[in-house]
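Please produce the structure of this protein holding S-adenosylmethionine.
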Amino acid sequence: MKEVQDYYFKKAQKEGYPARSVYKLEEANLKHGFLNRGGRVLDIGCYPGSWSLYSAKMVGPQGLVIGVDLQNGKRRVEDGKARIEFIRGDIMTDETSAAITAFAADFHVVLSDMAPQTTGNKWSDQQKSLELSRRAFDLARKFLAKDGVFYCKVFDGEDCKEFFDEVRRCFQKAKIVKPKSSRQESREIFVLGMGYKGNLIGGTQVVDKSNDR
Ligand SMILES: C[S@@+](CC[C@H](N)C(=O)[O-])C[C@H]1O[C@@H](n2cnc3c(N)ncnc32)[C@H](O)[C@@H]1O
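Below is the modeled complex.
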Protein backbone atom coordinates (compact mmCIF):
# COMPACT_ATOMS: atom_id res chain seq x y z
CA MET A 1 0.00 0.00 0.00
CA LYS A 2 2.93 2.36 0.72
CA GLU A 3 4.03 1.94 -2.93
CA VAL A 4 0.56 2.99 -4.09
CA GLN A 5 0.72 6.15 -1.96
CA ASP A 6 4.25 6.94 -3.19
CA TYR A 7 3.01 6.47 -6.75
CA TYR A 8 0.21 9.06 -6.33
CA PHE A 9 2.48 11.42 -4.39
CA LYS A 10 5.08 11.38 -7.17
CA LYS A 11 2.43 11.65 -9.88
CA ALA A 12 0.96 14.75 -8.17
CA GLN A 13 4.41 16.35 -7.93
CA LYS A 14 5.10 15.64 -11.59
CA GLU A 15 1.73 17.01 -12.71
CA GLY A 16 2.05 20.18 -10.58
CA TYR A 17 -0.58 19.45 -7.93
CA PRO A 18 0.13 20.28 -4.27
CA ALA A 19 -1.61 17.14 -2.95
CA ARG A 20 -2.22 13.59 -4.16
CA SER A 21 -5.87 13.98 -3.13
CA VAL A 22 -6.42 15.35 -6.65
CA TYR A 23 -6.74 11.76 -7.92
CA LYS A 24 -9.75 11.16 -5.65
CA LEU A 25 -11.56 13.78 -7.70
CA GLU A 26 -10.01 12.94 -11.06
CA GLU A 27 -11.05 9.29 -10.82
CA ALA A 28 -14.69 10.18 -10.10
CA ASN A 29 -14.75 12.83 -12.81
CA LEU A 30 -13.24 10.53 -15.44
CA LYS A 31 -15.90 7.96 -14.68
CA HIS A 32 -18.93 10.26 -14.30
CA GLY A 33 -17.87 13.36 -16.31
CA PHE A 34 -19.35 16.12 -14.14
CA LEU A 35 -16.66 18.81 -14.54
CA ASN A 36 -17.61 20.27 -17.91
CA ARG A 37 -16.44 23.28 -19.92
CA GLY A 38 -17.89 26.56 -18.65
CA GLY A 39 -19.03 25.07 -15.34
CA ARG A 40 -19.09 26.90 -12.02
CA VAL A 41 -17.56 24.90 -9.18
CA LEU A 42 -17.70 25.46 -5.43
CA ASP A 43 -14.77 23.67 -3.74
CA ILE A 44 -15.29 23.51 0.04
CA GLY A 45 -12.21 22.65 2.12
CA CYS A 46 -9.95 23.46 -0.81
CA TYR A 47 -6.50 23.89 0.82
CA PRO A 48 -3.82 23.27 -0.47
CA GLY A 49 -5.67 23.58 -3.78
CA SER A 50 -5.39 20.41 -5.87
CA TRP A 51 -9.11 20.03 -6.44
CA SER A 52 -9.45 23.72 -7.37
CA LEU A 53 -6.55 23.47 -9.85
CA TYR A 54 -7.92 20.31 -11.44
CA SER A 55 -11.45 21.78 -11.62
CA ALA A 56 -10.10 24.99 -13.19
CA LYS A 57 -8.37 22.91 -15.85
CA MET A 58 -11.53 20.91 -16.57
CA VAL A 59 -14.04 23.79 -16.73
CA GLY A 60 -11.64 25.99 -18.73
CA PRO A 61 -11.42 29.76 -19.16
CA GLN A 62 -15.21 30.29 -19.35
CA GLY A 63 -15.67 28.53 -16.02
CA LEU A 64 -15.32 29.68 -12.43
CA VAL A 65 -13.95 27.98 -9.32
CA ILE A 66 -14.63 29.30 -5.82
CA GLY A 67 -12.45 27.69 -3.15
CA VAL A 68 -13.18 27.99 0.59
CA ASP A 69 -10.93 26.96 3.47
CA LEU A 70 -9.92 27.82 7.02
CA GLN A 71 -6.33 27.92 5.78
CA ASN A 72 -4.94 30.30 3.19
CA GLY A 73 -5.31 28.47 -0.11
CA LYS A 74 -5.02 31.30 -2.61
CA ARG A 75 -3.96 29.94 -6.01
CA ARG A 76 -2.47 31.63 -9.03
CA VAL A 77 -4.72 31.62 -12.07
CA GLU A 78 -3.08 29.90 -15.04
CA ASP A 79 -3.58 30.56 -18.73
CA GLY A 80 -6.31 28.51 -20.38
CA LYS A 81 -7.89 27.62 -17.05
CA ALA A 82 -10.81 29.01 -15.09
CA ARG A 83 -10.56 31.92 -12.71
CA ILE A 84 -10.08 30.65 -9.16
CA GLU A 85 -11.38 32.85 -6.34
CA PHE A 86 -10.50 32.01 -2.77
CA ILE A 87 -12.50 32.70 0.39
CA ARG A 88 -10.74 32.22 3.70
CA GLY A 89 -13.34 31.31 6.30
CA ASP A 90 -15.15 28.73 8.36
CA ILE A 91 -17.83 27.05 6.27
CA MET A 92 -19.99 26.64 9.36
CA THR A 93 -20.62 30.42 9.54
CA ASP A 94 -23.22 32.56 7.77
CA GLU A 95 -20.48 35.08 6.86
CA THR A 96 -18.73 32.50 4.70
CA SER A 97 -21.98 31.50 3.03
CA ALA A 98 -22.67 35.19 2.28
CA ALA A 99 -19.17 35.57 0.84
CA ILE A 100 -19.89 32.71 -1.58
CA THR A 101 -23.15 34.36 -2.69
CA ALA A 102 -21.18 37.49 -3.58
CA PHE A 103 -19.41 35.49 -6.32
CA ALA A 104 -22.20 33.29 -7.66
CA ALA A 105 -25.66 32.08 -6.64
CA ASP A 106 -25.78 28.88 -8.63
CA PHE A 107 -23.09 26.31 -9.24
CA HIS A 108 -23.00 23.28 -11.50
CA VAL A 109 -20.83 21.33 -9.06
CA VAL A 110 -20.32 21.51 -5.28
CA LEU A 111 -17.29 19.61 -3.97
CA SER A 112 -16.27 18.99 -0.39
CA ASP A 113 -13.05 17.30 0.67
CA MET A 114 -13.30 18.78 4.17
CA ALA A 115 -11.73 16.83 6.99
CA PRO A 116 -11.78 17.68 10.69
CA GLN A 117 -8.68 17.84 12.89
CA THR A 118 -8.59 14.18 13.89
CA THR A 119 -8.16 13.19 17.54
CA GLY A 120 -7.71 9.43 17.13
CA ASN A 121 -11.10 8.86 18.75
CA LYS A 122 -12.86 7.00 15.97
CA TRP A 123 -16.40 7.89 17.05
CA SER A 124 -15.84 11.60 17.64
CA ASP A 125 -13.76 12.00 14.44
CA GLN A 126 -16.55 10.37 12.45
CA GLN A 127 -19.18 12.63 14.04
CA LYS A 128 -17.11 15.76 13.27
CA SER A 129 -16.63 14.61 9.69
CA LEU A 130 -20.36 14.01 9.36
CA GLU A 131 -21.10 17.48 10.72
CA LEU A 132 -18.86 19.01 8.03
CA SER A 133 -20.42 16.83 5.32
CA ARG A 134 -23.93 17.78 6.42
CA ARG A 135 -23.00 21.44 6.23
CA ALA A 136 -21.56 20.90 2.74
CA PHE A 137 -24.83 19.21 1.79
CA ASP A 138 -26.87 22.14 3.17
CA LEU A 139 -24.79 24.49 1.04
CA ALA A 140 -25.11 22.23 -1.99
CA ARG A 141 -28.90 22.48 -1.65
CA LYS A 142 -28.60 26.24 -1.36
CA PHE A 143 -26.14 26.81 -4.19
CA LEU A 144 -26.60 24.02 -6.74
CA ALA A 145 -28.34 24.68 -10.03
CA LYS A 146 -30.94 22.12 -11.07
CA ASP A 147 -29.20 18.97 -12.45
CA GLY A 148 -26.04 19.91 -10.56
CA VAL A 149 -23.59 17.48 -8.95
CA PHE A 150 -22.44 17.06 -5.32
CA TYR A 151 -19.24 15.14 -4.48
CA CYS A 152 -18.43 15.00 -0.79
CA LYS A 153 -16.00 13.20 1.52
CA VAL A 154 -17.27 11.60 4.69
CA PHE A 155 -15.74 9.18 7.20
CA ASP A 156 -17.67 5.95 7.00
CA GLY A 157 -19.44 4.90 10.19
CA GLU A 158 -22.57 5.32 12.24
CA ASP A 159 -25.21 7.63 10.66
CA CYS A 160 -23.45 7.57 7.29
CA LYS A 161 -26.23 5.55 5.71
CA GLU A 162 -28.78 8.10 6.91
CA PHE A 163 -26.69 10.88 5.35
CA PHE A 164 -26.42 8.98 2.08
CA ASP A 165 -30.19 8.43 2.01
CA GLU A 166 -30.76 12.16 2.52
CA VAL A 167 -28.47 12.93 -0.41
CA ARG A 168 -30.11 10.28 -2.56
CA ARG A 169 -33.55 11.84 -2.08
CA CYS A 170 -32.36 15.15 -3.58
CA PHE A 171 -30.63 13.74 -6.68
CA GLN A 172 -31.66 11.64 -9.67
CA LYS A 173 -28.75 9.29 -8.95
CA ALA A 174 -26.46 8.79 -5.97
CA LYS A 175 -23.46 6.55 -5.32
CA ILE A 176 -20.83 5.82 -2.71
CA VAL A 177 -17.36 6.09 -4.26
CA LYS A 178 -14.08 4.73 -2.87
CA PRO A 179 -11.33 5.89 -5.27
CA LYS A 180 -8.28 3.68 -5.84
CA SER A 181 -6.05 6.53 -4.67
CA SER A 182 -7.80 6.59 -1.28
CA ARG A 183 -5.93 4.35 1.17
CA GLN A 184 -7.89 1.12 1.74
CA GLU A 185 -7.36 1.42 5.50
CA SER A 186 -8.73 4.97 5.52
CA ARG A 187 -12.37 5.34 6.55
CA GLU A 188 -12.96 8.08 4.00
CA ILE A 189 -15.56 7.47 1.33
CA PHE A 190 -17.19 9.90 -1.09
CA VAL A 191 -20.88 10.48 -1.63
CA LEU A 192 -21.74 11.40 -5.20
CA GLY A 193 -25.12 12.91 -6.04
CA MET A 194 -25.87 13.53 -9.74
CA GLY A 195 -28.83 15.41 -11.19
CA TYR A 196 -29.91 17.75 -8.41
CA LYS A 197 -33.70 17.81 -8.33
CA GLY A 198 -33.89 21.45 -7.21
CA ASN A 199 -34.71 23.15 -3.98
CA LEU A 200 -37.61 21.13 -2.57
CA ILE A 201 -39.71 22.35 0.33
CA GLY A 202 -42.52 20.01 1.37
CA GLY A 203 -42.16 18.18 -1.91
CA THR A 204 -42.82 21.28 -4.02
CA GLN A 205 -40.12 22.66 -6.22
CA VAL A 206 -39.81 26.30 -5.24
CA VAL A 207 -36.59 27.21 -6.98
CA ASP A 208 -35.64 26.05 -10.43
CA LYS A 209 -32.44 27.87 -11.28
CA SER A 210 -31.79 27.19 -14.92
CA ASN A 211 -28.48 25.68 -15.78
CA ASP A 212 -27.16 27.87 -18.58
CA ARG A 213 -24.23 25.72 -19.51
C1 LIG B 1 -7.97 17.07 2.92
S1 LIG B 1 -7.87 18.80 2.95
C2 LIG B 1 -8.44 19.27 1.35
C3 LIG B 1 -7.48 18.97 0.23
C4 LIG B 1 -7.91 19.59 -1.08
N1 LIG B 1 -9.11 18.96 -1.62
C5 LIG B 1 -6.83 19.46 -2.14
O1 LIG B 1 -6.96 18.60 -3.01
O2 LIG B 1 -5.87 20.22 -2.11
C6 LIG B 1 -9.21 19.23 4.00
C7 LIG B 1 -9.38 20.71 4.25
O3 LIG B 1 -10.63 20.96 4.93
C8 LIG B 1 -10.49 22.18 5.60
N2 LIG B 1 -11.56 22.41 6.58
C9 LIG B 1 -11.86 21.67 7.68
N3 LIG B 1 -12.86 22.23 8.37
C10 LIG B 1 -13.24 23.34 7.68
C11 LIG B 1 -14.22 24.37 7.93
N4 LIG B 1 -15.01 24.33 9.01
N5 LIG B 1 -14.32 25.39 7.04
C12 LIG B 1 -13.50 25.43 5.95
N6 LIG B 1 -12.55 24.50 5.67
C13 LIG B 1 -12.41 23.47 6.54
C14 LIG B 1 -9.12 22.05 6.25
O4 LIG B 1 -8.60 23.32 6.62
C15 LIG B 1 -8.31 21.35 5.16
O5 LIG B 1 -7.52 22.25 4.43
